[in-house]
Request: fold
Amino acid sequence: MSLQAASVRLQRAGVRVDTQQASWTGWTELVVAAPPAAAAAAALGLHCYGLAVQSVTVNGQPASFELVQPVREELPQSVTGAAYDSQQRQVAAVAEAAYYLYERQLQRERQPELSFRLPQEVQQQLQQPGSAAAARGKGSSSGGSSDGSELRVRVEFSGGAGAGIGPSAGLHFWQQYAATDGQVRRTSAWLPCVDSSGAAVQWEGLEVTVRADEVAVGPGQLQRQTWADGERRWRSFHYALPVACPPCHLGFAVGPFRMAVSSLPAAKDGTAAANAAEKGAEANGAGSSKDAGSQGEPQLTSFAPQKLPAELAVAAVLAVQPSIAPANGTSAAADGLARSAHFTGLVWRLFEEVLGARCPLPAVQQAFLPPELLLSASGQVGQGLQLLSASQLIQPRAIEQSIAARCAIARCLARQWFGVLLRAATPLDEWLVEGLSGWLEEQFVQRYLGRNELAYKRWRERQVIFLADNGEAPPLAVRGVSVPSSWGPLFGTERFDPSHLWATKAVAVVAMLEKRAGEELFRKHVSTVVAAGLAALAAEQAAAAGKDGPAAAAAAAVATAVAAPAAGAAGAAAAGADGGSGTPVGSRLLDTMTFLNDLGRAGSFRREMAPFAARWVYGRGVPHVTAGYVYHRQAASGQHQGLSVLELALKQTGPACVKRAADYAQRAAAAEGSNAGIIKAVVREGEQYMDHPVHLGGEAFVLTELKVTPPVEKKQPGRRGRKKKEGEDGEEEAAAAVPEDPVRWLRLDPAGEQLIDIKLLQPERQLVAQLQHSRDVVAQAEAIQRLGELAVSSAPGARPAGLEALKRTLADRAVFYRVRCDAALALAGLRDDQGQAAGLPALLEFYRRNYFLPTTDGSDPATPQSIAVSDPSEYFVAQAVVTAISLCREPDGSTRDDVLLFLCACLSDYSSIPGAPFSDYGLVAAMCGALGNINFEGFGDALLTLLEKFLERDAVLVSPGSSVGRACLAAMAALCANGTCDDNEAARVATAVRRVRQSPGLPVALRHAAMAAALQMAAAQRGAEGVLQLALAGAAAAPGIAQQGQAAAPPPLRLPSAGTPAFLLEEAVQLVAAASASGPALSGEGPAMSDARARADGAVEQPIPPAAQGQLFSPARQPMDADDASSRWPQQPGAAQQAQQPQQPQQAAAPAAAPKFKLKLAGGPAQPEAATAAAAPAAGPAAAPAASSLLALAQRVQQQTQQAHVPNASGAPVCRRVL
Reply:
């Protein structure tokens, strides 16, 4: 039968989620356009991927339906079982077959899975025009339309593994939590709909029913909460979506959450526009602006799990007193929920100031979920909904994690503007929405992290694009391919790229537009586009509410007046340039050429936009340019002054697609009457900059001359009539023979207006001058990049200028810290004539001078000191120096002895300082990762022992993002890959990696790092085929979210081994004591500790929902289980034997103010896993007590420590401990 997708005009849905059974049931009602009378017998279709449908009704009458289940197609036996003459041919054949198999799967997903026919009575009514209106009017009593052009369809469905359907692809479960999948075409996997990115649907509401002790965080605005049954075991959350959106902007999360409400700061410039629009609307009789969707201050609410992950639980215990007091008296400030909510309000207000408009969304819910639920690290964004990982809660003492978490929150808020409110007109315009959301996120970086940070970030992202885009990746927008898919020619798969090349390039292209137009003009143009979108949204909302035409026009005028102050300047500029009115067209859909042409009109460069789009939007690849120059100075002759010329040569290379894109741009420029392929050369002459346009285009070689102002000859000071000394004439003649070079340095495309990889070859003195005298951080970074490639003279007494400049840059604290880090890495790459690391002495001297304990006798420092991180810049510089030292090599590629001993000493003798302003986990992770760069045969056992110690430490005292553990795993895999470890040690590493992968209680980030380490080892041993086989086997065997049939209870806490818990928990006691508010160790409890103690004691409150509508309430605080690490580290080999050894007297424990964490380079290879399994039961009772919290364990260790201190002969206490 013929099948066509239903044209949905209105939809509402209800879902009942059972997290214990990992299933859900629901219903949805759709108002669809009635088919014409000739097609009344045809079937209508809905996307319903992997769901079970119980019934379908049309206008209240049962309808026959057919449901197609997803088909899993395997590779044919003729491909997998065929004989190939080489491994490369086999991989190529399998890849080709897999490509076509995946394409067929995408084609199948385009077709609706659920098809239904209209009942006979409805068909007859459609075929009889005289009685159709009356019949549909009768159907309106069931909710149908009274005008006879719409039908109401109701579908009842169910899904999930608990319902016997199989693994779910749309709604994932983990323990007591559930969340929707935000990937492309996966909304239909939990809700029947027309899953298209371009079809916006008006949603009447979404009702999510959950258990009484759970919370449903949904899109839009929460209207009310009701009990779903008389026994009050289930409750329903009713959400209203004020903005029409496609189904992919829906989603929700379920779980035992606690919440924090964001407090918005006072608006600076945005309130004036809002008040003016309000007064204007009242004067025109259009009512208040609240009728147009502007309901005053929005409600921003953040949710976090009641039970935190391991890393956040440790951070909450070790955190200092919170500076932001939580509103509900819980430990929200300690784990970052209050900080995340506060920061959300700051960024929300910042974006409104940048765009010059108030966001029309009345509420935004932000939920931080367990990492096991999210398939994307960037999170999921819906209309007024943001789903992030719980690891992205802002931790106050973690520098890197805090920055990354803030960027993730800002990225999601930016997508509320560009992605939800303003959408792409066609799939070819998705890049523009992605680029503008990235540009808006960069405004946060510029405001809160600084302009230098933004400039350096853009430069680094461009370097990544130059390395990744080899011409084989698709362009930002694919033209000329006819594919009947609403998700575009690539079916939306460009968003699945793990390298994020497509999104990064889109942001870079938008940044190029900003550089071309200027920051202020570009911001005003974006404000104009936003104002037009808000006006169109106001008109849509007024029409959806049933208002007449004049009221809708008045509402649109109100929304336009709100953003008029920001959009007026850009509109006037556009009107002056084009001779038109400059009024923005009211549309929420962004079109590429419309956006570019309007920007060109505002900046008087509209003719350049068509070549720009042909080269960078629709073209592929990135050109690579190598340039060099020679300075020529001609002597003056007669009355003519000498001519100074800079001869510049450029060589352009790249794949064939780059040449085609350049040719397309040239033809587009010829049609528009403009120039394309012009790059700017900036020459620093003395104290001024001179700009020179250079035409590059698609030419392979370009040779051009740049005029340079000749130097002015200065007269030498002296007395008139003074006799010249002997030899003075020769010196003056020599000075006159070598004139001063006026060119201090040269840069090509310094503003980044072209996406071209430029390698400019300059003399060393020009690079040194550029590094020391330029105020631009990008210019300094480019100079360091070139200086690191130069050879250094090893002649006695020689002091190369480049080496000295890099040393001064590293030591100068006034230089931007990112530039100093680059200088450290450049010093590691310098080589002298014999191939030795020329920068290693400078790096070792710098680190010893700044981060070692000074000596009293004036000798070289030899003991590393703990770094109380108070200056984040020095914190990053220390990491870069450690990494740079590890990269220094001998001419044969091996690591020097002094480097090996230095890194081992730094890591083994390092200790954290409690109470420091910032955590030093990043520096410890850098030290562990630096060991992976060592290439020294015969030293693998000692290195692995040191790494295993810190890996166990991170399993108990989890670092933010498991950074230390991930660095240890990566270093262990690298040591196996570079040949430092022998076969036995490689087997030891493989055992450790496998145990981490098979420990479900460990953090997700650590298990992912273990999988990456296993893949790296497989690549070194078996090549690409081994990596692919291991990846497929791991994906099939891992207990993933989709294969989890029922939520399992977390396993109890078990300590790593009988030998390691002593000093690990001893350090935990000391850190807790230093972080406590008052009193000795664990005697005084702050808010975080008291709340943890209260929840551990089982204090429970019964949830009582408020009777008033529109009010959010916090669910009951569930009794906090014991801090469960769920077997964070399996039993170590020989633990039972080690526990039976007699206790040896050890050195007294360090005081609580400055604990020491020392590790000795000792130990042998791990025993086989069989011995481990045999020893584990014996060590279980001693090493793994009953489930108890980290706090209780720390108390027990402290008591044992106090009892074990006995005085020795000298009167000093000695701690007897099995270490």
